[in-house]
Amino acid sequence: MQDRIERLKTFLKESPNDSFLKHALALEYIKIGNDSDAKQMFESNLTADEAYVATYYHLGKLLERTGAQQEAISIYEKGMQVAKAAGDMHSYNELQAAYEDLVY
Fold first, then answer.
1. Which of 69, 73, 75, 84 is nearest to 55 (CA)?
2. Which end of the chain has the least Cβ crowding within 10 Å, N or C?
3. pLDDT in tens for each of the 104 residues of the chain?
4. What's the per-residue H, E or C state across 35-88?
């Protein structure tokens, strides 16, 4: 696990604005229970590229798991807007389901 994290960090040094690499690194952090670094990486990803739809779902789930329900709701709502604007109905539906599970 740590080997993958180190490889992703190396790739990010070469391509610091690569949204896919940031997202992948955040997911690896989640696997080892490092929610703090995962959250930071997800947020960095959305700051640099708010159109990277996949990050909204995973950040929302992380926020839910750590007790930040209001933040999760906001992330899901923003993610649904971005997914809809991009015509990504699959992601929109996933975000909507997560939102509804949390709110209702």
1. 75
2. C
3. 789 999 999 999 999 999 999 999 999 999 999 999 999 999 999 999 999 999 999 999 999 999 999 999 999 999 999 999 999 999 999 999 999 999 99
4. HHHHHHHHHHHHHHCCCCCHHHHHHHHHHHHCCCHHHHHHHHHHHHHHHHHHCC
Domain region containing 89: 2-103
Contact between residue 56 and residue 46 where contact means Cβ atoms under 8 Å apart = yes
Residues, the chain? 104
pTM of the model: 0.93
> What distance in Å separates the CA atoms of residue 31 and residue 92, rounded to the nearest whole number?
24
Amino acid of residue 44: S
CATH of the domain at 20: 1.25.40.10
Q: What is the maximal distance between C-alpha atoms in the chain? A: 43
Cα distance between residue 33 and residue 76, in whole Å: 22
Which residue is it, tokens 């700051």? 47
* Structural domain count, the chain: 1
